[in-house]
Amino acid sequence: MRQLNRFIDKILFFTTALTSISFFIIIILAVASRYIFKAPILASIELSRLLFVWSCFLAAALAYRRKAHISITFIFEKFPHFLQKYVTLFLHILILLFLVIVFHQSVIVTVLLWPSRLPMLQITQSWFYLPVPIFSLILIFYTLEFLVDDLGVKKE
Predict the structure, then answer these.
(1) Whole-prediction pTM value?
(2) What is the pLDDT of residues 131-143, one digit of tens each?
(3) Calpha distance 87→76 (Å, rounded)
């Protein structure tokens, strides 16, 4: 599980970098073409929004894997150590349940929106929703690894 997650992590890192850089370049080109050359790139709005959505979800998955997301721990840290372990396990189970629900519902929405098209890019609107099932599936893998680590299961 850990090796798979490390592989996913590498792909996420490069994909996030690619989408973020592409988003930045498209914004710069769109502004330059509109205000300097007086010829706007019509598809730039749709494409920049699409890349922004993908960048956000991919970066959020990276932050989750590295445990770099925002958390409020001042109450949790006051718990006795043995209780912290059980609370953490319980939270991982709740996160897994939530992610399974999100995955299922996001697949439904993505499939329902598949026939609709973006006006300028002429691609399916599902590309805006596709990061959610991918994101939730990746987080399921990461949470399973966290759960196994917290349970103290022997590693091979």
Answers:
(1) 0.87
(2) 999 999 999 999 9
(3) 9
